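Deliverable D2.4 — example input (structure tokens):
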């Protein structure tokens, strides 16, 4: 994705996950907003995004962060697939996770994580990756060396922890206690 589209993707993330009110919008309870309404609101707040760029970000995004669908009113709507800090009910069903999941983070965070487990912070859920490579990329967003953690998801599910998978393949859970975490 070129630099302009990365900028558009970040702009959409900010509005659709964290600050819809910054452009005068409210998301519906499931996090959707009408595409035309969104584009008009961005333009009205001096942050215009063209429909072509929105489509390019939705379909070309490395991580498929956004989903477009047709609402009950027959109009196109868009939402972020995960990562919200504003309250939304994504309506994801509980699913049996793979036996192991992975989490990439900064090495400096590991002692704290091994004490209190993985906590969701301001996000809705702890984000886990299905493969080590993705976890590596997630961890590399932090400064300093990356630490890779393996989560015993089978054992967690066995003791009643619930998991969901976002539309773009991120595994979500409420909290990962330290006993299920192993540093790779
Ligand atoms: C850490 C990106 C100390 C955790 C990615 C992480 C992902 C703790 C940071 C998505 C801790 C939170 C989410 C504890 C957790 N002590 N540190 N007890 N528990 N942490 O960004 O998982 O590009 O909220 O390790 O691809 O890094 O936005 O979570 O380093 O899918 O689409 O606290 O964000 O997606 O950071 O990333 P984040 P994350 P997007």
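Example output (designed residues):
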């Amino acid at each position: 994705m070129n630099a302009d589209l990365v900028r558009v993707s970040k702009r959409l993330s900010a509005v659709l996950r964290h600050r819809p009110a910054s452009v005068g919008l409210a998301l519906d309870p499931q996090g959707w907003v009408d595409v035309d309404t969104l584009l008009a609101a961005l333009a009205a707040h001096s942050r215009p995004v063209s429909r072509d760029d929105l489509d390019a970000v939705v379909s070309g995004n490395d991580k498929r962060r956004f989903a477009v669908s047709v609402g009950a009113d027959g109009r196109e709507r868009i939402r972020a697939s995960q990562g919200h800090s504003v309250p939304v009910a994504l309506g994801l069903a509980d699913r049996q996770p793979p036996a192991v999941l992975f989490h990439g983070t900064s090495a400096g965070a590991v002692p704290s994580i091994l004490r209190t487990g993985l906590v969701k912070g301001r996000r809705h859920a702890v984000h886990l990756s299905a493969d080590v490579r993705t976890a590596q990329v997630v961890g590399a967003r932090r400064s300093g060396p990356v630490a890779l953690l393996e989560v015993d998801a089978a054992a967690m599910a066995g003791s009643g922890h619930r998991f969901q998978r976002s539309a773009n393949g991120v595994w979500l859970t409420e909290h990962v206690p330290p006993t299920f975490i192993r540093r790779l």
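Residues 3-18 form the longest helix (16 residues).
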